[in-house]
Amino acid sequence: ASVALLGPAEVRDLAAMLDLTPTKKLGQNFVIDANTVRKIVRAARVEAGDVVVEIGPGLGSLTFGLLEAGAAVVAVEIDRRLAAQLPLTAAQLAPEASLTVVHDDALRVLELPSEPSRLVANLPYNVSVPVLLHFLEHFPSIRSGVVMVQAEVGHRLAAAPGSKVYGSPSVKAAWYGDWRIAGQVSRQVFWPVPNVDSVLVGFDRVGSGLDSEELRVRTFEIVDAAFGQRRKMLRQALSTVLGDSQEATRILTAAGVDPMARGEQLTVHDFLAVARATS
Ligand code: SAM
Predict the structure, then answer these.
(1) E-strand spans in 45-104?
(2) Which ligand 1 atom is the nearest neighbour of the CA of 6?
(3) 207 Cβ partners below 8 Å, 6+ apart?
(4) Which of 141, 135, 154 is nearest to 43 (CA)?
């Protein structure tokens, strides 16, 4: 299908037409470079016929790249003006493509009009991690994806135990699958130019989630406690969620985890073992 991609002039014209001043609060930095869009679509290995969910399509920069690759796109946008405009732009630039725009807060959406197999997005920076975790939790049909996030956040998501930036988002992301840095993105490809660098992060879901929802909630509680006091040994850091320090030592030992270790040394499987040992 023939699809036109947005460049700097189109992005500015659309924004002017909507009388839109991009807001920081909604992380509105729009991609103005077609090469970057194609790079994201390639990194996500999007194929014709894939159902892709996009979070925060904005003016459509990435959306048209996904449609160009032949994907059917479901796009969730919180800004009413942008959600209303996108189908009108699509009628001009991608008249034969399959696009459904959902006007909603991505942090709250629990149902989509079709089952996506991939998630591809240039995420709003202030909510990137909670939005990702929300989608992975509520839409098990999503098997893989690529997202553009602030560089610091991307390195956290892809971090392994022992790394300086390994933390609660790294463990929670690993609950759902394997993560990798899939590319760097210059801040010059955005309008307006943000004051942080960005990276592409790719993921593949592993299995169908590690365990039951109840065990996930308990594991995440333990993870938050461990990294809430990341300098402390686990037997102390976890005493609030596992009982006193003596009880914490007993549970950690039963789980095969050294009570004197710190959270940053544990894999998601270790945290899961601790959660299991509490029941
Ligand atoms: N995808 C577009 C692009 O690449 O040019 C826009 C990306 S911009 C970084 C983030 C987009 O997410 C904006 O369009 C913004 O309005 C939208 N957004 C912000 N918070 C959101 C939320 N909670 N749910 C859905 N969309 C949101």
Answers:
(1) 51-55, 72-77, 99-103
(2) 5
(3) none
(4) 154
pLDDT at 207 (0 to 100):
73
How far from chain centre, in Å, is Cα 80? 22
State the Cα–Cα distance between residues 252 and 243, nearest whole angstrom. 12
Q: How far is residue 100's CA from residue 219's CA, in Å, rounded to a whole number?
A: 35
pTM: predicted TM-score of the whole model, two decimal places: 0.96
ipTM of this complex prediction, to 2 decimal places:
0.99
Q: What's 270's DSSP letter?
A: H
Q: How far is the CA of 199 from the centre of ligand 1 (A)?
A: 16
User: Whose structure tokens read 């942080």?
Assistant: 196
In the chain, the amino acid numbered 190 is: F
Helix (H, G, I), strand (E, B) or coil at 231: coil
Query: Is residue 1 very low, low, confident or very high in pLDDT (cuts 50, 70, 90)?
Result: low
Residue with tokens 């909630």: 217
Pairwise CA distance, residues 262 & 152, whole Å: 22
CA of 76 to the centre of ligand 1 (A): 8
* CA-based nearest residue to 233, from 260, 258, 251, 215: 260
Residue 143 dihedral angles phi and psi, to the nearest 5°:
-100, -25
Structure tokens at 195: 């004051």
Among candidate residues 228, 231, 218, the one with its CA nearest the CA of residue 271 = 218
Cα–Cα distance for residue pair 208/140, rounded to 1 Å: 7
Give the distance, in angstroms, between the CA of residue 50 and the centroid of all CA atoms in the same chain: 19
Atom of ligand 1 nearest to the CA of 148: 9
Query: Six-digit token pair at 218?
Result: 């308990």
